[in-house]
Amino acid sequence: MNEKKGRILSGMRPTGKLHLGNYVGALENWVKLQEEYENYHLVADWHVLTTQCEDTENIGNDTIDMVIDWIGAGIDPRKSPMFAQSNIKEHAELHLLFSMLVTVPRLERNPTVKEQIKDLHLEGKVSYGHLGYPVLQAADILIYKADLVPVGEDQLPHVELTREIARRFNYLYGDVFPEPDAKLTAFSRLPGTDGKRMSKSAGNVILLSDEPEVISKKIMSAITDPEKIRKGDPGKPEICTVYTYHTKFNSEECNGIERDCRSGKLGCVECKKRLSKKVIDFLEPFRKNRAYYLEHIDEIKDILLDGEKRAREVASKTMDDVHRAMKLG
Length: 329
Ligand code: TRP
Known about the structure:
Elements: E1 7-12, H1 20-33, E2 38-43, H2 45-52, H3 59-72, E3 82-84, H4 90-99, H5 104-108, H6 111-119, H7 128-131, H8 133-142, E4 148-151, H9 156-173, E5 181-184, H10 212-220, H11 241-249, H12 254-263, H13 268-295, H14 297-326
Parallel strand pairs: 1-2, 2-3, 4-5
The protein binds tryptophan.
């Protein structure tokens, strides 16, 4: 037994408590993949600095909060090491070496970075570290010689760059790195309760840690088909956020819900109540786990320490390979 298909490196910026969108878009996939692959889970805390280097106060707490949710969702720390990037200094060294292999125009062409620069109004004043964060990400991935990287679509340009860097390194210095593939998440986007992109800053998220009353309240105020005003009005599930949630969290009742929504037999209030119950039940184990770990924060710290040890072992071996290949100390 224990024959794994390969190695996965997955990473997330520490954003604190996670929401259902994080779960559906990434975490759920991580949990599934941990049986088949050898997984390394990175807390990308240096990456946070690209957009908020003035304010580092909460990064530590956000890391703990996020890792509690990872574990709450079913990531098993005995199987899959979890660790903070900033504790494995080898990432920084590999980033420096890789930074010589990439041109500035190549980095400036990266569509995800371009979009961020536009959204944050950073034209003409983007930092060197921000422009180069995909190179750091390449180091995160390649230092573990990962074969697969589970990501959302916005991260595909970074995986492509990672492959180019691996190729260039291997061409110049000899074969050290695999060319990792991206693994896109199947159900990649769960909308926020207002039907728009789910994000904490938009205030439209359901947190994995939300209490049952809070979940109910959020779902009761969710956007549905605007033309279905009262029970009896025929609805259009295909444009209804609540229905999208039913497809994810209540798939066995979906056919009936769709039929009764269209005919007008099912009103939005009842439909939302049924969804609330499902989501509350679904998140029950997450809340239980979180409650336990909040009382045992030391265990989270130990898990991170153990993850760090296991990650460093691999990372330092890779750096030995790199030094040998480059004939550098
Ligand atoms: N850039 C990723 C994000 O913004 C986070 C990240 C950093 C990452 N290093 C990684 C993701 C390595 C996958 C692999 O979400």
